[in-house]
Every structure is written in C-alpha cells, then in structure tokens.
Design goal:
Elements: H1 2-18, E1 48-54, E2 57-58, E3 62-63, E4 66-76, E5 82-92
Antiparallel strand pairs: 1-4, 2-3, 4-5
C-alpha cells in the first residue's frame, strides 16, 4: 500500500512539473457565477440558470484531460423551498458517445440559506 501511495505521489509530482499551471479559481463568495439572477425562485426546479466552461485541474493547478462545465441550477431544500446549487460535469477527451458515469457524494445536511 505504501509503495502504491509513493508511486502516486511521484506521478503527481511529475505531472505538476511537466504541466502548465492553471490560475486558482475564485472563491464562490467572490465569483458572480454563483449569484442567481433576479426571479430565480419563481423558476421551475431543475432549470439551469447559468452555465460555463471551466478548467478542471488536479489540486487546482494541473489541468485534467477533460472538457468541463459548471451549471447553476434550481432545486429544493428539505422543506421543498427553492434554492440554487452548482454541479460540475466532466467529459473525458476520449469519452464514448452515449456513455455516462455519475459520481455523487453523500449529502446529509440541509441548506441554511
């Protein structure tokens, strides 16, 4: 196990040394993309309010070989009240058309906005 971790760390370090670095993204509190437009809470759940192409990067520095997009969309909280959230979609450069792999982390908290 330790050997596998060492190999991964060496590979990551080599990637960082060889790849051009990506500028650090803005924090959500400083990025206007995260501000929903006026009237967003009257929009149907699932509606995409904004989208943009972004650069996905390992440790926010080394670009990954994917095309990536962020979507700001309308959803609901635990009381069925509207809220907005953001998701990121990664499309590998060698992706097979029609194939999809979804990865979702568990979320066990309620939005406090």
């Amino acid at each position: 196990m330790l050997q596998a971790i060492s190999i991964f760390c060496l590979a990551a370090a080599a990637s960082v040394a060889a790849a051009p670095l990506v500028p650090a993204p803005l924090l959500p509190a400083q990025d206007p993309f995260y501000l929903p437009p006026a009237g967003w809470n009257q929009t149907a759940r699932g509606s995409i309010l904004r989208s943009r192409k972004v650069t996905a990067a390992l440790y926010t520095a080394v670009p990954l070989p994917v095309t990536s997009y962020q979507l700001l969309f309308v959803t609901s909280d635990a009381q069925e009240l509207p809220l907005v959230t953001v998701t990121t979609i990664l499309v590998p450069t060698n992706a097979a058309p029609g194939m999809l792999l979804a990865y979702s982390t568990a979320e066990d908290s309620v939005n406090t906005m």
